[in-house]
Design a protein that fits this description.
By secondary structure, the chain is mostly helical. It has one domain. 77% of the residues lie in helices and 0% in strands. Helix 6 runs antiparallel to helix 14. It is globular.
C-alpha cells in the first residue's frame, strides 16, 4: 500500500510539469516513468526493511542458539554425572559385587575422546590453520599448557578416591565452590585482593558443605553404598580438598594463558589440554605396574590382588568380567567431550555470567537427579547446607554482575 501511493504521487507531479499542448501517449511515456518510479520505491523500501529483518533474524537465531547450548550442556553433563556416580560409587555384578577403581584409565578414555572432538571443533572454528601450529601456536605456551594438563590429571584421581569415603552429593556440593581454591591461590601466590562480599560467599559455602557433611546420607538401597566401616569422612574431605586445590591451579593457569597468549582460543585449550593429558595418563598407566608394588597406589584403590599387572590391565580385566561397564565408560567419555564443546561454544558466543548461571543450575539439577535416581535421603539440616551453598554461589553471581555494571557506568 505504501509503495503504490508514493508511486502515484510522483506520477501526478510529473504530469503537472508537462505542458498542456503536449499530449503524451500513456503507453510510451507515462507508463515507463511510473514503472521506473515503482521499481525505485520498491528498492528503497526493501533496503529500509532489510536491516530490521536481519536484526529480527539474528535475535531469533540467537535465542535458538542459546536454547541449543543450554539443552546441550544440561543433556550432556547430567548424563555424564549419572554415569560418573554409577562408575565410582555403585558395585557391578550380581554374584561378585565389585567397584570400578580405575580413575586414571577412565581419565585416559575421556581425554582421548575430548582430544578428538576438540580437534574437529578447532578445525571447524578455524579452517585457516591446520596441524600442530593450530593447536600449539607458540612454543612458549607449551609449558603453561603442560601445567594445566598435569594439575587436571592429578585432580581427578583425588576426587574419585574421595568418593570411597564421602557420598556423591557432598562431592557435588564441594565441587560447586570452586571460588574457594581460586581465591586461596590468588591471595597467597599473587597477593590479589577481593571485595568483602566474596569472603562472605566463601564462608557461606564452606559452612554449607560442613553442615551437610556432619549428617551422613542414608541411601535407600544399602547395596549401592560402600562398606561404612571403610568410610572415613575426614580422609575423604582431605582428598576432596586436594582435588579442589588442583582444580584451582588448573583454572588459575588457564586464565593466565588466555590473558598472556592471546588470541589463544577455547577450542585450542580443549584440544591441547586433552592431548597432553592423554600423554601424561598413558605414561602413568605404563608405570602403574611398578607403582602398585611401591605401596603408593593403594591410596587410590590399587592393590596387588586386583591391580598387580597395573591399572590398565586390571581395568580391562574388570571390564571383561562386567561387559556393561564398557557402555558406562564410553558414554561417560562421550558426554564429557561433547559437554566441553558446548561450554567453550557458549563462552565464545555469550557472556561468562550466562555460563556460570547455566553451570550453577546444572549442578543443582545434578544433585536433585542424584537424590531421585540413586535413592539418597537428606535430613533437614542437610537441605539447609545445600541452601547455604547454592545461596552463597547465587549471591556471588548477582553481586559480581552489579559490581561489573557499576564499573561500566563509571567508565
Amino acid at each position: 500500500m505504501t509503495i503504490s501511493s508514493r508511486g502515484s504521487k510522483k506520477a501526478n507531479n510529473s504530469s503537472k510539469i508537462i505542458p498542456a499542448s503536449v499530449s503524451p501517449s500513456p503507453s510510451r511515456s507515462s507508463a515507463p516513468n511510473m514503472n521506473s518510479s515503482l521499481k525505485i520505491q520498491k528498492r528503497k523500501s526493501s533496503a529500509s526493511l532489510k536491516p530490521h529483518e536481519e536484526k529480527r533474524g539474528k535475535e531469533s537465531a540467537g535465542v535458538l542458539q542459546f536454547l541449543i547450548m543450554v539443552g546441550g550442556i544440561y543433556g550432556s553433563f547430567l548424563t555424564w554425572a549419572l554415569l560418573q556416580e554409577r562408575l565410582t560409587t555403585t558395585p557391578y555384578g550380581s554374584t561378585t559385587r565389585e567397584f570400578f577403581k580405575f580413575p586414571v584409565f577412565l581419565n585416559t578414555v575421556q581425554s582421548v575422546f575430548a582430544a578428538l572432538v576438540g580437534y574437529f571443533y578447532l578445525r571447524k572454528s578455524d579452517r585457516k590453520r591446520t596441524g600442530l601450529s593450530s593447536i600449539f601456536p607458540r612454543r612458549s605456551v607449551i609449558l603453561p599448557l603442560l601445567l594445566v594438563a598435569t594439575t587436571s590429571s592429578l585432580a581427578s584421581p583425588f576426587g574419585y578416591a574421595s568418593l570411597a569415603h564421602i557420598d556423591y552429593i557432598t562431592f557435588i556440593l564441594a565441587k560447586s565452590c570452586k571460588l574457594l581454591p581460586v581465591m586461596f591461590l590468588n591471595v597467597t601466590l599473587f597477593r590479589k585482593k577481593y571485595p568483602m562480599y566474596k569472603y562472605f560467599v566463601v564462608f557461606a559455602v564452606t559452612s554449607g558443605v560442613a553442615i551437610f557433611t556432619l549428617r551422613a546420607t542414608s541411601p535407600k538401597k544399602a547395596s549401592k553404598a560402600t562398606n561404612n566401616l571403610q568410610r572415613n569422612n575426614a580422609w575423604g574431605l582431605l582428598l576432596l580438598g586436594m582435588n579442589l586445590l588442583f582444580d584451582g591451579l588448573t583454572n588459575t593457569t588457564q586464565d593466565y594463558i588466555f590473558q598472556n597468549f592471546q588470541p589463544f582460543s577455547g577450542p585450542q585449550m580443549m584440544c591441547a589440554n586433552n592431548i597432553i593429558s592423554t600423554l601424561l595418563t598413558l605414561s602413568y598407566l605404563g608405570l602403574s605396574p611398578y607403582l602398585v608394588r611401591s605401596g603408593f597406589g593403594r591410596y587410590f584403590g590399587l592393590t596387588l590382588s586386583t591391580s598387580g599387572g597395573g591399572e590398565f590391565a586390571a581395568a580391562l580385566a574388570f571390564m571383561t568380567r562386567h561387559p556393561w561397564v564398557w557402555f558406562d565408560v564410553l558414554g561417560f567419555a562421550a558426554c564429557g567431550a561433547i559437554g566441553q564443546v558446548f561450554i567453550f561454544y557458549t563462552l565464545s558466543n555469550f557472556s561468562s555470567l550466562i555460563l556460570v548461571t547455566i553451570t550453577l543450575t546444572r549442578k543443582m539439577l545434578t544433585m536433585i537427579l542424584s537424590v531421585i535416581w540413586f535413592g539418597h535421603r537428606l535430613a533437614t539440616t542437610q537441605w539447609i547446607g545445600v541452601g547455604l551453598v547454592f545461596g552463597g554461589i547465587s549471591a556471588e553471581v548477582i553481586l559480581a554482575r552489579r559490581s561489573k555494571r557499576s564499573k561500566e557506568k563509571v567508565k
